[in-house]
Each structure stands twice: as C-alpha cells, then as structure tokens.
Amino acid sequence: MSEKPTISDKPTTSDKPSKPSNKRGDALPTDGFGLEVDRKMKSLYDTSEAAMKAGLEIKRKFPLVQVTVFNAVERTRMPVELPKDSAA
C-alpha cells in the first residue's frame, strides 16, 4: 500500500531556485554607469564608454527618446546626443 504524501514531503521554498529580484525602473545604481531611456534605468555598465556606446545605438534607432548615462559614483547624468553629421 502506498503512503500519502504529508505536508513535510512537499518541497520547501529553499529547495526551489530563487528568482533574481527585478529592479525598479526609477531605482538608481550605487556603482558603475547606468543607461537611462526616458528617465527609466535600463542597464548597467562598468565603464562610461560602454554605456555611451549602447546609448548611441539606441539613439540611432530611436532618435526621439531621451537617452542619458548615469554616473553612480558622482551621481550625475550625461545626455547621449547623436553626432551632427549623422542626424537626419
């Protein structure tokens, strides 16, 4: 005769892999450089050059959106602008 599973036989929450917590779109990072699109934090980078490169790619595809690079250490924002010769 098979036994019925009891409450203690169920997997506990510690047995399941935990999901990474989703960051809020308006939460500011504490280190590195964040890429903001229309004032929402989208991704984090280790260097300002990497963040600026990603920002320029977005700005080329979608020139009307506001793109900025956020310096978490200095707590400053630098707007990403298209070069004058590539503007449509």
What can you see in these coordinates?
- It is elongated, with a radius of gyration of 22 Å.
- A hairpin with a 4-residue loop joins strand 3 (67-71) and strand 4.
- With 88 residues, it is an alpha+beta fold.
- It has 1 helix and 4 strands; from the N terminus they run E-E-H-E-E.
- It has one helix at residues 48-61, and strands at residues 33-37, 40-45, 67-71, 76-79.
- Strands 2-1-3-4 form a 4-stranded antiparallel β-sheet, with helices on one face.
- The chain has a domain at 27-82.
Approximately what portion of the residues adopt beta-strand conformation? Answer: 15-25%
Widest sheet, order of strands = 2-1-3-4
Largest sheet: 4 strands, antiparallel
SSE order, one letter for each helix or strand: EEHEE
Identify low-pLDDT runs.
Answer: none
Number of helices: 1
What is the radius of gyration computed over CA atoms, rounded to a whole number of angstroms?
A: 22 Å
Head-to-tail CA distance between termini? 77 Å
Features:
88 residues, alpha+beta, 1 helix, four-stranded antiparallel sheet
What is the compact description of this entry?
By secondary structure, the protein is α+β, with helices and mostly antiparallel strands. The protein is built from 1 helix and 4 strands. The mean pLDDT is about 80.
